[in-house]
Amino acid sequence: MSRVCKMSKNVREVFRLDELKDDIRRNMVALLGNDPRSKRKFSYYNALAYSVRERLVDLWMRTQSDYYDSMAKRVYYLSMEFLPGRFLMNYLTNMGIVDECREIVAELGFSLEELEEEEWDAGLGNGGLGRLASCYLDSMVSQNIPGYGYGILYDYGIFYQSIVNGNQEERCDNWRRHGCPWEITRLDTLYEVKFYGRSETYYDSDGNVRFRWVDTENVMAMPCDILIPGYGCSHVSNMRLWTAQSSREFNLSDFNRGDYIGAMHGKVMSENITKVLYPNDQFLQGMELRLKQQYFLVSATFQDILRRYLKQHTSLAALPEAVAVQLNDTHPAIAIPELMRLLMDVYGMGWDVAWDICTRTFAYTNHTVLPEALETWPVDLLGRLLPRHMQIIYEINRRFLEGVAATFPGDTERLSRMSVIQEEGGQRVRMANLAIVGSHTVNGVAALHSNILQTGLFRDFHEYYPRKIRNVTNGVTPRRWLMQCNPALSRLITQSIGPEWCCNLEKLRELVPLAEDSAFRDAWARAKLENKRLLSRYVLRKVQMGINPNTLFDMQFKRMHEYKRQLLNVMHVISLFNRIKDNPSADITPRTVLFGGKAAPGYYQAKLIIRLINEVARVVNADADVAGRLRVAFLPNYCISQAEKVVPAADLSEQISTAGMEASGTGNMKFALNGALTIGTLDGANVEIMEEVGAENIFIFGLKAHEVAEKRRSGYNPREFYENDAELRRVMDMIGSGFFSPDERGLFSPVYDSLMHHGDYYMLMADYRPYMEAQAAVDALYLDQDQWVRKSILNAANMGKFSSDRSVMEYARGIWHVEPLGK
Ligand code: GPU
Known about the structure:
Layout: H1 11-14, H2 20-30, H3 41-70, E1 74-78, H4 88-95, H5 98-107, H6 112-116, H7 128-142, E2 147-152, E3 160-164, E4 167-171, E5 183-185, E6 191-195, E7 198-203, E8 209-214, E9 217-229, E10 236-246, H8 248-256, H9 260-271, H10 288-310, H11 319-322, E11 323-328, H12 335-346, H13 351-361, E12 362-365, E13 376-378, H14 379-385, H15 387-407, H16 412-418, E14 421-422, E15 428-430, H17 431-438, E16 441-444, H18 447-457, H19 459-464, E17 469-471, H20 478-484, H21 487-497, H22 518-543, E18 552-557, H23 566-582, E19 591-596, H24 604-622, E20 630-634, H25 640-646, E21 652-655, H26 667-673, E22 677-680, H27 686-693, E23 699-700, H28 705-714, H29 718-724, H30 726-737, H31 749-756, H32 764-783, H33 785-797, H34 804-816
Parallel strand pairs: 1-2, 1-11, 2-10, 11-12, 12-16, 16-17, 18-19, 18-21, 19-20, 21-22, 22-23
Antiparallel strand pairs: 3-4, 5-9, 6-9, 7-8, 9-10, 13-15, 14-15
């Protein structure tokens, strides 16, 4: 049993809480140079943060030496994105000292909540993919699985979104402007990362042909660690984020030539690598700087992995027994030729031995089937930036295709589909093919998605490697996504079934019988109402709009994407508006429809839909007939800390993507876990949510994935729905004719045209009527609060499967082959 495990016994003693207040005051002076008599919230937040962090450093060091002593196999989770949000409350929650801390902070004259609000989100990701990585780190360390996150410390995270005259405007997110107390910068550790140059052959002393990468331009990578505390402080791990520093020698040579500005230019250019996160979600832009970022992450990380490994091993032959590397999508897939290069060119191995090590080390997770998101890099770009890697990729492909050709003789079409090199339209490297060939396991992120990989996108690979492509359904951490974000509900659950649920989410099933207990239902409804009140106050503060907590809170919060179909939701809102206008005295269920989400800055259609939401909101909210029955708002700058306010307050969760397009979704899990009912298509993890909560407790509608595929094949005609449905026709005509944009009648024509004239690729017209019917069922059920609350309880109670603890254990046992330490 590890030393660390015993630490959680007496938190007061372990975390020296009696000294915390003094430490906060000391840090105010010593670290921040502030007068402790000052009442600046920001200073106190920082002083508290440092005081909390220093209590974990010791545990972190013990954890690391536990890993070292036991020679445990380590998991490296490589991701271009992490989306941790704020750290303070997560540290306190996982340390189990929220209440104690609240008291201490009160003695200093603050509320914990106001200090919490001083922290900027760490927005080092776009959306679900980055947040999943952060949930997995929480679950790994909480379950004693020795793992690390490796990523990039962007100076500028995902942009700050504001809404000006209904339009999205982007401002840069200078999140570390005032420092970040959670970072531990390792100034003394620097790795060199090479770019450009050329691959050179030479003969080694045995007369063998070898390769080396020469005439490179070098940049230094410096690590910055952020601690990740496990729940109950079982262990403390870290994510290691790299920042680019100019290399010293390239400066010096220029200085010696007297070219000061030239030297500075080079310095600035090289440090640009980690300047900014690319804000595209599921869209490849193909910029050289992005490929540089990817290789920068991979090169620095592998130097670190091998350094740590070689401290305890003399030969690299056993690497796959000591190291598992998970590639979070193809973004870090250049790691495969990089490890080959290191093993062959630096450590002198032959191809076959190196390839065997490589393919036993890597596993790859696919997160999308959208064609515009699949990474391909032009051969000339990749070959110029990473010439030796390009050579290795060609050789991987040559050997791979040899194998395929032997299995499927004469099937040249199959060869060209499976090739790592795409030939048509100029040679490009298909990163997904490279990742599949170089990994022992490939997984999709929900059952339906993995199935689509096996039978659709990666069908040829599934035929060739029948056991390689598998499923691990996503999950979310119950610590942040219930315990921390929803204290009212957490308290009620713990009072009713005890505290174990937060480490064993299946325990929530014990709530099932309580759905029949009217006192419990009342308490459940009160918790929801309290959260809705809190959110109403937030909405008033943010967008100066009053919303009524007694109305149905209908929420769609996620990145703006055509396939996620925020537009379908808007079409429902417009239809409700029309029904009220036609019959102002009609008895309808009062609703508040809330939206949030960022659009990629270059995604025209997604930005236009934001504008449409805001213009519809303007019309609806100003209408006297509608008052009290329908309100619409778009909350700017959706981010993790906003999600923590939104999710607990939802009655209805909108998960309405075109079936077959959302790989999994994780917002769907967060909302249902917090007692929202889902209206959704049979897409991604919605399918499994329905299986868990029961078809009678969820509003499923619309085309199924195979029907979407069939319709695309047989010819889909959106106009047919327009012609046969008067209510739909009216909605479309209002959008197209400028009803919501009287000063600019043609403003929304592109929205109208995409559905009516450009094929309605995401099939909103086909799903409109079924969606309207499902929404009518929602309205009816909401009027019966007793039934609604019962179903709300049953939703939360049946979400056990969607804990990221379960997902991580599936990876650990089935893919990484690691066991929790100390068990
Ligand atoms: N996802 Br690829 C992203 O958030 N960004 C990406 O670049 C890619 C995928 C999402 C999927 O859209 C979502 O369905 C999934 O739940 C999430 O990754 C985590 O797997």
